Amino acid sequence: xxxxxxxxxxxxxxxxxxxxxxxxxxxxxxxxxxxxxxxxxxxxxxxxxxxxxxxxxxxxxxxxxxxxxxxxxxxxxxxxxxxxxxxxxxxxxxxxxxxxxxxxxxxxxxxxxxxxxxxxxxxxxxxxxxxxxxxxxxxxxxxxxxxxxxxxxxxxxxxxxxxxxxxxxxxxxxxxxxxxxxxxxxxxxxxxxxxxxxxxxxxxxxxxxxxxxxxxxxxxxxxxxxxxxxxxxxxxxxxxxxxxxxxxxxxxxxxxxxxxxxxxxxxxxxxxxxxxxxxxxxxxxxxxxxxxxxxxxxxxxxxxxxxxxxxxxxxxxxxxxxxxxxxxxxxxxxxxxxxxxxxxxxxxxxxxxxxxxxxxxxxxxxxxxxxxxxxxxxxxxxxxxxxxxxxxxxxxxxxxxxxxxxxxxxxxxxxxxxxxxxxxxxxxxxxxxxxxxxxxxxxxxxxxxxxxxxxxxxxxxxxxxxxxxxxxxxxxxxxxxxxxxxxxxxxxxxxxxxxxxxxxxxxxxxxxxxxxxxxxxxxxxxxxxxxxxxxxxxxxxxxxxxxxxxxxxxxxxxxxxxxxxxxxxxxxxxxxxxxxxxxxxxxxxxxxxxxxxxxxxxxxxxxxxxxxxxxxxxxxxxxxxxxxxxxxxxxxxxxxxxxxxxxxxxxxxxxxxxxxxxxxxxxxxxxxxxxxxxxxxx
Length: 682
Prior knowledge:
Distance between the termini: 73 Å
Largest sheet: 5 strands, antiparallel
Mean pLDDT: 80
Oligomer: single chain
Strand content: 5-15%
Helix content: 40-55%
Low-confidence stretches: 194-207
Number of domains: 5
Number of helices: 23
């Protein structure tokens, strides 16, 4: 406590210039901080060292470095940027240089002009954060940064005295509050040429599904607890074990990696989707986080029908023959789609086609022991001549009875990974079971393939949305049977039924903070996370997903029958003009009402000049009292006394309040009485 009080006392006695400089440096550091997660390590280290150097100079009163030193540092920064980014152009290189320039410019804070340059560089730096993320957390962090920059700007326009930081902060908050209505109008009505945030790449650096699968790849995704998508259903929600969100369909295997199939036959001979919808439709709405893939993980099975297919403004969506929805550009931004799915369905050719032979292929010489095991299983008397479903049931029964363990940490596998997993270690995650199952089925002559995507969701919805996380990433299998088409087989359900039936996916060990919260209250961390994700979902739905369709719907509600861009532009211009006129009227009124003391002084001056007293606008009431006595003598004593009383009230009493109306009435009466008395001789 003593140390804290001593620090506060020392801070209170700092020169104003030092205090303001340290505050400004703190704001710059706050604005730069989120960029340190994206930029090269040298950039962060250099920026921090420059800010600390400038703070030391402010505290010690030392001289700022000359321009040659600053120029040398700038050249060094440009060289390091060129080395790390291989260019001085583009987003990454430009932001790297901007951060360094911001820190370097603080070494040139010699004049008010330099400070203004730093202020506005700071505002531009704040905008660049949205090129990486527009999450609610980022928005709140940058809101503090903007408030700090506005406070520093307010301090720069308070040159007299030592205004407290709290006063500058209040001025900044008031100025920002005055801009909120204009900001809301522009947000609601300004025409959008595309999605609201078209540049950022929120998916950068994230884990998630990919266009291929290696053993252990899905397990690494399962360690990510971030949200992959949110889904809301119109009507009753299906069971968690029915939630299969179809992603990449992988049919080509090289012994280590599954990839999309490169067909060996003409397009006319390849398997077609041949989707048959059974039962009722399930209407749903999804908010999909960026995944950097050319696909949309939709609920199985979402057909290509006008009343059911998804739609994204400015994007082309196509349903592939393997049931995967493909998009014509990587999904680099959050999107919201509405669609319908038929959980009961059949798909795939009912009769054999030449292209199915591609789904029997295995790498030559790979997994020899697993192939031998499959052949021995198929030769069992009860399985001779069995169909694909019966053979699959036999393999699933082996998984249930064979001592297999479902785990996130199966360890590394050798070159013949399927052999080692299937016959020896028996430790694996969903991709191990799906891969081995497909290899076994192909070895028995059954066309099979791996499907990746998401399965299940959180046990309880939030704000009506079921949350599907990256740890819900899953791999399952499909086998082809004549007369039925493709059948979904989930081998994981045979060894870990809770994973599929209840959506209980394995979770990695919690970190230090989460572990401490869990030890204190096992449900506290979960409640805090759910509360934050609920707020974040509202941010996503109401702000980030606000689209031109919602703008048009707003115009329809106010009576515009067929809204267009022209209507949006007209409404925006009309409201802005109205706001400008209202602002001008308020400024005129505020100018008339501001500083009533000056208006009172002008009225007093007019009365005294009418009596022949030579007073000027800058004269204080006490000075005017002396001039009244000198010009009017004894007949002006009442006026002089009133002016002295006004002087005492203005400069003596706390608060500097204006006099009551009774004072003015008394002063005006004294002035009239003085005017009615003729001036004495001399």
